[in-house]
Amino acid sequence: MIYDNVVIGSSISALGCILGLLKSKKKILCIDGSSLNNIKADQNTNEKIIYCSQKLPLKNFKFNRKSNYKFEPLEVLESKSFGGLSNVWGANSLRFLKNDFDEWPISYDILKNYYEKCEELMKVSHFNDDISEEFKINGKKIDESKLNLYSNFIKVFFSKKNYNKIDLIAGFSRVALNPNVDSCSGCFFGCKHVFNTRDYLKKLIHSKDIEYKENLNLKKFSLKDNLIELEFDNSSNEKIFAKKLYIGAGSVQTPKIVMNSLEKKADLNIIESQYYLFPCFYTGKDFDTDLNHHTLSQAQIVYKNNIKHKLGNVCYEVKYDQKLMNLILKKRFSIFHKLIPNFIKKRIFVITCQINSNNSVYTAKIRKEDQKFEIFENKKNRKKIKKEISEQMRVLGKNFNFLSLNIFSKLGNFGRGYHLGASLPMLDENKVNDKNLKTIYTKKNGEMSQYKNVFIIDSSNFSTIPSGSVSLTVMANALRIATESLND
């Protein structure tokens, strides 16, 4: 069977790509390594949470892991489920800042319209705050009706705005959450109001706007005349050819597919933004505890000017989730967590941050021999991050009335932030020198340098991994790539 367009994957990048391709009215096939069956969350809250080796939590979902007692981040990234990581993501949907694109062949302005379309699709609201001012959000797009879903804590947290806007910007979190929710407090545990690609793709499949083949794992592709032949590692009966192929299998699977397809095998490098977590204690004025609020990130703060060490933009997320916090305290202190008074517990919250890939502690390569990860640690970056982030947290604590409990902080192991990529980075082909011509990369239109009509649409084609959530940019960039490819 020959298809005009074949999209690999069912997560954020695949949906963005498909939405762009729908305009062509040509045949679209979506192929995924999982089935359409919904992932049904267990009603027992305690069984909905699993922990990694660093005792950091994740919503439980079906994926292969070696241990019943803990998971490794790469096991999550290698998992196959319909909807991909949108089944377990935190719904953070903040745009990258303009200077985050300094090393990319595309600019913020190129993605701006695609950002707006994806925000509308994912129900991401903008508010009258510094973040909207930073991105110059049109006043007509500001809608504060969703603020009733935010906690009393974060409203008190922001009641004191005593910071230098040159150094940082702050505002209510941009999250992909249905604004028509009356109340919500179970986002981390699988709230149905959080955007996922699963529901949207099902509508497209059932309306026959796209075709869908499930439980097919793409192993490799090869060029045959003017077509692209697909080969699967779990089926030899499927004969599928594509005129154009869009690969969005994820930051781990996509480079492995490309590696299998290369005539001359090569290692592929992979980078990440560094995850860092800080438990904090709020010291400001009292507030009413109301559990009827969303429990995704409550606020986003971007520290733009570094204090002692250059780390570039550092994106912080403020999380306030009393249900999850009680489970974490129980995990950490066992029966003794009951000795912590409620008036203390209600003031405990978490701040996480991401440090861009240029300054991350870890990098890795996927070895061509066995496709295993070889991870490298940069100890200088580890020291630099700890010193600079501690200074920034001290300043933030002064500005927003909290103490950072550094003794319980966690610098994430490789993959823990789930923001990996750049194994097949976008480069400006007009600026690639002779030495780089032998490397594997994608052009700024998303097409692979060595394979005509093969496009990379997930974070594998990022030039760098900036601080902050990558999901909105992944979808916007995939939508851009698909839309531009229609003109070829």
Describe this entry's structure for a reader.
The protein is of the alpha+beta class and 488 residues long. The chain has 11 helices and 22 strands. Strands 1, 2, 6, 7, 8, 9 and 22 form a 7-stranded mixed beta sheet that branches. Strands 5, 11, 12, 13, 14, 17 and 18 form a 7-stranded antiparallel beta sheet that branches. Strand 15 and strand 16 form a beta hairpin. Helix 1 runs parallel beside helix 11 and helix 3 packs across helix 11. About 1% of the residues have low confidence.
Task: Please describe the topology of this protein.
Blueprint: E1 2-8, H1 12-21, E2 28-31, E3 49-51, E4 57-59, H2 73-77, H3 108-122, H4 130-135, H5 152-157, E5 168-172, H6 197-206, E6 211-213, E7 218-224, E8 227-232, E9 235-247, H7 253-261, E10 268-272, E11 274-282, E12 297-303, E13 314-319, H8 322-333, H9 342-345, E14 348-355, E15 362-366, E16 373-377, H10 379-400, E17 402-404, E18 410-411, E19 420-421, E20 426-427, E21 442-443, E22 454-456, H11 471-485
Parallel strand pairs: 1-2, 1-9, 2-6, 9-22, 20-21
Antiparallel strand pairs: 3-4, 5-12, 7-8, 8-9, 10-15, 10-19, 11-14, 11-17, 11-18, 12-13, 13-14, 15-16
Helix pairs in contact: 1-11, 3-11
